[in-house]
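Let us practice reading a record.
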Amino acid sequence: MAEPMRIRATMAGDVADVKVLMNHPMETGLRKDAKTGQLVPAHFIQEVTATINGATVLSANLGSGVSKNPYLGFKVKGPKAGDKVVVNWTDNKGDKNTAEAVIG
C-alpha cells in the first residue's frame, strides 16, 4: 500500500495554487544495494494527473531521473474556493495513489 500524499490547495485571486508531496522511493534501477551489490530494481512514478471538479488540469509523464518523494507545485486559473482537486499517480509496477483537497 502506497504512503499517503500530502496535498494543499489555496486561492490567490482567481488562481489556485496546488502543492503536492508524493511519497515514493523513485529508484532508477541503476543503484546497487550496499550490502548485496545487486542492482535495486527500477521503481518510479510514470504518470501524474490532476483534476479540478473532474476536469483534467495537469497530465505529466515522469521518469527514473526524478528524486525520491517528488514535490509538485502548479497553478490553475479559473477554479473557485470550495472546488475539489484530485491528484493521481501510477508507477512502473502498477501501484497507484490518490489524494484530494478542497481549494481554500
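A brief commentary: The mean pLDDT is 96.
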